[in-house]
Design goal:
The chain has 11 helices and 8 strands. The protein is of the alpha/beta class. It folds into 2 domains: 177 residues, 3-Layer(aba) Sandwich (Rossmann fold), CATH 3.40.50.720; 85 residues, N-(1-d-carboxylethyl)-l-norvaline Dehydrogenase, domain 2, CATH 1.10.1040. Helix 1 crosses helix 2, helix 7 packs across helix 10 and helix 10 packs across helix 11. The chain is globular. Bound molecules: acetoacetyl-coenzyme A. Acetoacetyl-coenzyme A binds next to helix 2, helix 7 and helix 9.
Length: 283
Amino acid sequence: MIKSIAVLGAGQMGSGIAQVCAQAGYQVTVIDISEMQREKALVGITKSLDKLVSKNVLRMEDQQATLSRLAFAKTLPGGDFDLLIEAVTENITLKTKLLAEASQILRDDAIIASNTSSISLTQLAVCTNRPDKVIGMHFMNPVPLMQLVEVILSLTTSDETFAATADVIQAIGKTMVVSQDAPGFIVNRILMPMINEAVFTLYEGIATAKDIDAAMKLGTNQPMGPLALADLIGLDTCLSIMTVLHDGFNDSKYRPCPLLKNYVAAGWLGRKSGRGFYHYDAS
Ligand code: CAA
């Protein structure tokens, strides 16, 4: 039974995952090499919990209890973790390196989950010393508010690993869907081409960003327009997922829009950098 969780990476996804696991009663250690990132994660989690308390979604005493279950570390301590959830940048070289290293440190029976949004789980699994215990747990952004976790089965994932992962998802109050290991899985296979097409629509001068988003928000009842959503997800993440789809299917229908590439090259990554298709406050 899973009691103690390590979350590798304290970015927006890692901190959201750590938060919802700690809220559900798990002991959680968040690992990130960058002190600034660890501090930012704690500030973000505290703000999010404040918000949930102010909306009566969480009781004040549960907020304190959640924070007391969270610890931060620079590197993965040898410790007694039952599950590690990796949520580092969407880069296969980085992920395989960190997962291979983590698998040398973790207990033999610990499960390794990756929050990858598009990279092959089978490729990640075979870099570890326990391919049967590797699984995809793909959370949606913003994690505390989004109901879904997409579970991805690699060719090597065992039934026991799947069952233990499903228990954790139920315990944190999320809903699971299951995908086989194919580029983009379910959500990003469908969502990213839509976002990419919105960027093409802007690139070709068909409409302004504001009108593209209004069209999709008001015309198709999406909670936010595709360009605003791209800014929320991070344009670097969107580009890297489109690249995985393009390479994985070898099909030109997934070619990333040149404007998306240019925005990423300019460092206009969306909300996290203060500028993407829209401008954001530094706060
Ligand atoms: N924790 C707690 N509260 C939060 C929060 C967080 N992390 N993030 C936002 N909130 C709060 C806001 O502060 C806001 O509070 P107030 O009402 O007091 O201002 C409240 O939640 C609602 O937020 P918004 O006012 O911005 O309005 P909203 O009703 O539009 O909800 C949203 C926000 C849930 C993000 C909604 O716009 C939405 O569902 N957007 C789509 C998100 C989506 O599609 N996510 C999936 C992306 S794909 C992905 O993540 C996978 C991938 O691999 C790329």
